[in-house]
Write a structure and sequence with these properties.
The protein has about 450 residues and is an alpha/beta fold. It is built from 14 helices and 13 strands. The chain has helices at about 1-10, 15-40, 75, 85-95, 125-140, 155-165, 180-195, 230-245, 285-290, 300-305, 310-335, 350-370, 405-420, 430-435; strands at about 50, 55-60, 60-65, 65-70, 100-105, 115, 120, 140-145, 215, 250-255, 295-300, 335-340, 375-380. Strands 10-9-8-5-4-13-12-11 form an 8-stranded parallel beta sheet. Helix 6 crosses helix 7, helix 7 (about 180-195) packs parallel to helix 8 (about 230-245) and helix 12 (about 350-370) packs parallel to helix 13 (about 405-420). The model is unreliable at about 1-40 (pLDDT under 50). It catalyses: Random hydrolysis of (1->4)-beta-D-mannosidic linkages in mannans, galactomannans and glucomannans. InterPro entries: GH, Glyco_hydro_5, MAN-like. GO terms for molecular function: mannan endo-1,4-beta-mannosidase activity.
């Protein structure tokens, strides 16, 4: 009866339809954007990662990283049907005690391109990257964001050269002109500035001010084979690292190297996998020692680099390779060294037990470095996927929770690093009880 009287009063005063309309509008807002309020309202207090000599520092404590690669996050966030995979992967990483994910902040030309043409961006894809960063923050995961690819996948150097060629300003059709063509350098600088100053629509924070971003990576696996002396690549690294620092001095910066020693390095024959590695136009120490580069990066793929070594020989090389670069970090660079990619392919001769042995070796080298406060500051498995992503996999990809032995090794590493330097606040909920029996 009260309800009936109220209805008559609203209708009589002409308020019924405006109120219904307002309620419908609120419902529309919730259905359209409610997930923003739900997904990103939980505040995670992340601080910027800093560097003190050969160590990363978080809130006054040494920070050694158990991390992973999922390069596909932005690409999948651009499609609402695949966007849930981002949360699934980041939540799973957090539950394993992982702290940093390395992923692409580029897609130049082609499908789901972030940069459609020089200086022109797809706002939908930029919002996808916003989502990745906001979701990482929500799960207490930091990100290494790579800015361009040396390889052709997702555009890379090839796309930049193609753009310059189509506009009639290219000096050469060589992919390596990416490093020395003034027009292409301007393209890349414009891209970098746009990304670094982007304001996240979900968090309201500019990327350059967001501690969710652990570091910027200039380029994935740079090589300039047309100049094996290394001078061309070195000049590009100097210019671009200085440019990044002119815009963003809060975040750490790395080059994105594979770790090969150049032709003038005393380690070119003793430490490189084979003779070809010295002729790729890069040099680990020379490229990494610049004051504008905060830490060095190395990749570890012995079965990809060697065609005629057995598994035991590959393991022996991997250990030697890692220790050589940690020695460089301690003695030459005085900076942390991150092994930002490592993996063992599931080729025709693949045995899961071999992958676990390789994984265990890499993680043990990092653990011993952490125990001794050395420069080997972390490792990143290549690559982690979620279910139903087979076509995005390569011969290295795995869904970690589908391999119990591998999953156990990864989580045990998180516990071992926590035992040495303590749990981060973002790890406490996931690892405090899980690691207790191991401590």
């Amino acid at each position: 009866m009260v309800k009936s009287s109220m209805n008559r009063m609203l209708v009589g005063n002409g308020l019924f339809y405006p109120i219904i309309g307002f309620a419908s509008f609120i419902a529309f807002l919730y259905l359209s954007f409610g997930n923003l309020w739900v997904n990103y309202s939980k505040e995670i207090n992340l601080s910027f990662v800093e560097r003190n000599g050969t160590q990363f520092i978080v809130e006054g404590k040494a920070f050694y990283i158990n991390g992973w690669n999922s390069y596909w996050l932005m690409d999948h966030a651009a499609d609402y049907t695949t966007r849930p995979r981002i949360r699934t992967m980041l939540q799973a990483g957090a539950k394993m005690g992982l702290t940093v994910c390395r992923t692409w902040a580029f897609n130049d030309g082609g499908y789901n391109a972030l940069q459609i043409s020089p200086g022109k961006f797809d706002e939908k894809v930029f919002r996808a990257l916003d989502h990745v960063i906001a979701e990482a923050r929500r799960n207490g995961i930091r990100l290494i964001l790579s800015l361009v690819n040396n390889l052709q996948a997702y555009g890379g150097k090839t796309q930049y050269v193609k753009w310059a060629w189509e506009e009639g300003v290219a000096l050469s059709s060589s992919n390596d002109s990416f490093f020395y063509d003034p027009s292409i350098r301007r393209y890349f600088k414009s891209y970098v500035k746009t990304v670094l100053t982007r304001r996240n629509i979900y968090t309201g924070i500019e990327y350059r001010d967001d501690p969710t971003i652990f570091a910027w990576e200039l380029i994935n696996e740079p090589r300039c084979m047309t100049d094996p002396s290394g001078d061309t690549l070195q000049d590009w690294i100097e210019e671009m690292s200085t440019f990044v620092k002119s815009i963003d001095r809060k975040h750490l910066l790395t080059v994105g190297l594979e770790g090969f020693y150049g032709p003038k390095s005393p380690k070119r024959t003793a430490a490189n996998p084979e003779f070809w590695a010295a002729d790729l136009g890069s040099d680990f120490v020379r490229n990494s020692i610049l004051s504008t580069v905060d830490f060095a990066s190395v990749h570890v793929y012995p079965d990809h680099w060697f065609k005629h070594k057995n598994f035991e020989e590959m393991l022996k090389f991997a250990a030697k390779w890692m220790l050589s670069h940690i020695e460089d970090g301690d003695r030459e660079l005085k900076k942390p060294v991150l092994f930002t990619e490592f993996g063992l392919s599931n080729n025709d001769d693949f045995e899961p037990a071999q992958r676990d042995r390789f994984l265990k070796l890499v993680l043990e080298v990092i653990y011993m470095s952490a125990k001794r406060n050395r420069s080997g500051a972390g490792s990143f498995f290549w690559q982690f996927l979620v279910e139903k992503m087979e076509r995005f996999s390569d011969e290295y990809g795995i869904v970690p929770w589908e391999s119990p032995s591998t999953y156990r090794l990864i989580t045990e590493q998180s516990c071992k690093l926590a035992k040495v330097h303590g749990l981060l606040p973002t790890q406490i909920d996931h690892l405090k009880n899980f690691c207790a029996p191991r401590n």
